[in-house]
Records
---
Amino acid sequence: MANHQHAAPAPVGGKLLNAATFVCGVFAAILLAILAVRFFLGLGAVTNLNDGYPWGIWIVVDVVIGSAFACGGFSVAMLVYIFNRGEYHPLVRPALLASLFGYTLAGAGVIFDLGRWWNVWNMFWPGSANPHSVMFEVAVCITAYIFVMWLEFAPVVLEKFGMTARKQKLNKVMFAIIALGTVLPMMHQSSLGTLLVVLGTQIHPLWRTPIEPLLYLLTAITMGYAVVLFESCVASTAYRRKIEMNMLTPLSKVMLGFLVAYLAVRIGDVVVRGALPRAFALSLEAVVFWFEMACFVAPLFLIGKENDRRNPARLFVAGILLMLGGAMLRINGFLIGYETGDGFHYFPSLSEILVTLGMFSLEVLAYIVITRRFPVLPREAATH
Amino acid sequence: MNTRRDFLKGVLAGGAVVTAAAVAEPAIARETKKRPAEGLGLLYDATLCVGCKACVAACKVANNNPPEFSTEDHLWDTPLDTSGYTFNIIKMYRNGTMDAKDQETNGYSFMKISCMHCADPSCVSACPVSAMTKDPVTGVVGYNPDKCIGCRYCVAACPFGIPKYQYDSPTGRIGKCELCRHRYKDGHYSACAEVCPTGATLYGKTSDLLIEAKRRLAMKPGELNRFPRGKIGGPDQSWETPAGKYLQHVYGEKEYGGTQVLKLSGVSFEKVGLPDLPEDSAAALSETIQHTLYGNLIMPFAVLGAMTYVAKRNVKLDDAPTDKEEG
């Protein structure tokens, strides 16, 4: 393969306590307080969940969307190791780190939402596990992927503590771990879409399709690249480092490829199933459908030309739009386009929103601490 | 240009996977399940129901559920819908002047809302830990709180909105009708049918109940007919009353592959709160997709094999210079 020489990853350094980590810490503390109430008094004490909307933002945002946002590691690893594009190698570690925390917290977040969490071992108990259940596939696969990602990230920790011999041993089997790390997210990211299929006619026709798994997989990969664009821009600004445009510009082209494939499948599916007229009805569902589509289509105009892909501001906005589009696809399918009957309404409570904010704060906090102390980002003189 | 060649290999591996999926599909399509031959159920006849709600009260007692209040004085059990503590309820349909029963315009009607005990239940397919099960003989959809993890996928999946969760408790359970299966050993059957004074709710084998339902649809409206009460095949408690004006539709005969609880009504089923469902179940479609993608784990291993092959070529070379740099 082409041998790309990159600066080796190194800790950014600098103080751990600053305005950003303090704010994140405060949100994390609020999260713990609300969870204490939830575990002592029940889900009803802190959430607006009801039997018409048994799943709220803890599932749809923290897990379904949160894990898709955490597909950066998978998307980039696939590009580098499967499609052998070594030039993107410096992006692997930071993307993997964000994914690691995204998934670990999504996994932890599920526990907050489980009404009978002490029975969760049944998921892995042969006498109880139901392999026909989409939820079973999602749960087992996400759990496995969290372990796999920690193994993928382990060299960073081993490097930090100078355990070179162990690192080399692990690196010998790393190809197998990486292969597993691309297959597992393909499985559960698609299954997160399949979750909707058994809900049947309760899902609005614009989001009710048997190709749900393909739509969720394609958008998860697209969102993975979008998150990398977003993170790279934010990390460069926050750490006052050079933006890695030499990698982000071609990466965004790969992202557009997946986006075009998604749009073709998505629009084709809506038309073939005859659901298109529903997009022109006077309804909330139609409005959010067009908003979702606009988020996916706008990047084509924003960074469609090679020259525009060299503009970091445009890449940043396109990244945000695609993250938003993917988030809308999931919110629309799971919440807005989900109708169980008259009389049920759901809007997240303040506590639910604070817990979700707390989860994202924990991710940011962990990202800052690890990048400052562990060799994740490519070596470069940090200004503070 | 090795890079380009390997890139193409990656694309080919991906293509092979998609092809495998397309070819695998017909072999593992999962048909909509049928009712078990001896399946038990209820027949609810809205034209016979007088709205006394004796069944609602009996259900509370039989399942040891607390009362739920919707009035200021908190005197009587007055739930407005099924819940984690109310497994059966009689709802009322009202229109205009409410002149006549079982009439869509300017009329009113009742509808019993409780578990339909589907032939191919979405909740059973959805449940990741087999806490929701369908008895292979009786067909009763039962719930086991000792396995349940409280994910509420069953609540989301059910098209009838039946499994409900107890949000007010830190140890909340799912609540739903289990056709009083815990009372069979004492010689009892579904409490709602036991207490029904008019036979509007009738208990029995679904195959018998379907014959009874079709007998009623063939009656001339207003003509005196005999109607069994309690349980089909039990002691004769039948009585005589004029036949109602039925819609020619046994709800539950074919919906989602059939349900073990059947319904008759004079007012359209959608208006009394029962969804218009196709004959193929959502569970069948969901499991067909799952089995296509994961049947015997063939696809995952095929993809994993392809990925491992490609990764083995690329990863080894890639990490070598990094190690040297650190050395």
---
Amino acid sequence: MRTKSYSYWLFLAPVLIALTLVVVVPMLLGVYYSFTSWNGIVTGNFVGFENYTNAFKDERFMDALWFTVKFSVVSVIMINVIGLSLALLVTSHVKSSKLLRTVFFMPNLIGGLILGFIWQFIFIKVFASVGQIIGMESLQGWLSTTNTGFWGLTILMSWQMAGYIMVIYIAYLEGMPKELLEASEIDGASSTQRFRFIVFPLVAPAFTVSMFLTLSNTFKLYDQNLSLTGGGPYNSTEMVAMEIFQTAFTQNVFAYAQAKAVIFFVIVALVALVQVYVNKRREVEM
Amino acid sequence: MRRKWNFKMEIIGLVLALLWLAPFYLMFVNSFKTKREIFTSTIALPGLWNFENYIEAYERLDFLRTLFNSLFITVTSVLLIVLFSAMGAYALSRAKSKFSSVFFYLFVAAMLIPFQSVMIPLVTVFGRFEMLNQAGLIFMYIGFGASLSIFLYHGALNNISRSLDEAATIDGANRWQVFWHIIFPMLKPITVTVAILNIIWIWNDYLLPSLVINQPGKETIPLKMFFFFGEYTKQWHLAMAGLTLAIVPVIIFYFFAQRAIIKGVSDGAIK
């Protein structure tokens, strides 16, 4: 097939048109609008970097950004530790291996919105009633403070995503040559040594994939945030994605919201690129 | 050397599995309780398994229609994404040129763009052309879904020898016939992956339909669930019945296709 031929363009046309109209044009328009006083109908004047400087002075936006960073760091660590532990567990000669995989993976199939509602019930009603029975005061009033909202979100995300990350680690663990492990066992390596010097280096590529997936999923989180805490109390558990949505569709300041959206894009893209670069280098060294 | 059955791990695993299922257990048992029963205990089994909550939730959710809307949007979008992405990736992999690599990197780069960054102009532009409806939603899913799908198909196509294309062409097949009768069937394993990843995403998506679907009666399950839950915030017994109803179709799908689903998700993440 040549790029000059009709068939080349006919084969490409549907996806190319869809991508252009749905992603490329809105992205370019968005960058342009972020430098204006656009209100959704009239483009308005060119205002330079005003929207951007305002965004960095916007306390609510900066709080949301900081909350998102804290949430992502804690969640990425928790999800990966739990996910890798589950993967080691189900690959360690247990008879119920298949059943366990099925169970741990299940939450991933259900939408974040619905999972958030289920956990809202657990944190608010179940925690309170269990707390009453066993006399633990700290189980009362979950999701009504910033702190419990934060941990509520990380627990929900760890429960949901650990099984997903487990599946990725399993793929690498099962691809590992068994002779290596057996040889090291005969040579007298302890299980900690085997993990540190054989398993860990061989599953290093899995870290690249898992870190990338968890980071991008947690950093861009919206559905779970909306259904579990709704950003409350007093917007203190609001993450960037929700803050942008609120600025755009509740406060109706489109150009300003779009400037925040562009900042969001730059951060997401930078983190992704840096991470892939760092992980690729580490893999080679190990 | 055969390793022994690991009894300790077996027990830990089963306990953890029960812990993992606990949220679903709590949702399920409380969906049968009365408001008063939930107030006294959230953990015990219901005194009486009555289906009244379900009858009310079923009506309020307009369940059959909502389920049909979700099925219609998901099935149509995924079929089109599979077909168009396979076609696009086929063109990109068979015509090696500057155009092709620019397009390929464009699709890959688009994966980095978070939805919020294009959301506002997207909705205003489509709104101006009266495209905030089911057709517009499906079109948007093709645009957002194409990137990852093309990426996956492109990888698989590079492993299929071009000599097959050439042999078929010599035998008189045209481009479409080569693609449809020879190449596309060979892509079946990756098609399953692409379809599963897109089904999970589109079926569960809330934000995009909430911005695009404004007509009553056209809501998908997550969208209807959001309104339903908002109305019944303090009526947990009804909310739990509604949530259980919303999850049942997914559990059925998982029951029949779990091996393909887990394989698809793992392949999609690793490639």
